[in-house]
Amino acid sequence: MIVAATSASNEKVRFPGIDVVTETGRRALLDLQDEQPSIESLEGDATGTVENLVEVTDELGTGHKLDAVLRPGTSGTANLLRLKADADSDAGETREISLDFNYTVKADEAAGFAIPEPVIEPNA
Fold first, then answer.
1. Domain span including residue 60
2. Which of 23, 85, 91, 112 is the most buried (most CB within 10 A)?
């Protein structure tokens, strides 16, 4: 699955509360012993971080939630970033799950005019 996101060069994009789920949609825990969830840049110069990683329990079960935060690089570029985490609950083994982000940073282009206060001058 690829998630699309767009921002200006002075903005970041946050995907809050991403649930880690099983194939049937129940909450699932990540293996935090072998590898912490992270976001890697595959293409472009945008960067990403995982924030607010928490364990929650509710009617959907017990599992992790996290925020994916994408930060722009060069204006006018397309970027590919990947959120990855270890889903294997056995220490010493890794089974990676991932989610890709197609992140476009809009170019800082002219969009209009900023009108100053008018100056009243004599009509000579």
1. 2-105
2. 85
% of the chain surpassing 90 pLDDT: 77
Residues recorded for the chain:
124
d(CA 76, CA 108): 8
How much is the average pLDDT of 26-49?
A: 94
What is the CATH number for 98? 2.60.40
CA-CA-CA-CA dihedral for 22, 27, 29, 35, to nearest 10: 70
Residue 54: how many other CB atoms lie within 10 Å:
10
Residue 78 tokens, joined: 């397309």
Residue 75 lies in a domain: yes
Question: Taking a C-beta distance cutoff of 8 angstroms, is the pair 99, 67 a contact?
Answer: no
Distance of alpha carbon 71 from the chain centroid: 8
Number of domains in the chain: 1
The pLDDT tens digits for 83-121 are: 999 988 766 677 899 999 999 999 888 889 999 999 999
**Which of 6, 13, 2, 8 minimizes the C-alpha distance to 71?**
13
pLDDT in tens, 46-72: 999 999 999 999 988 999 999 999 999
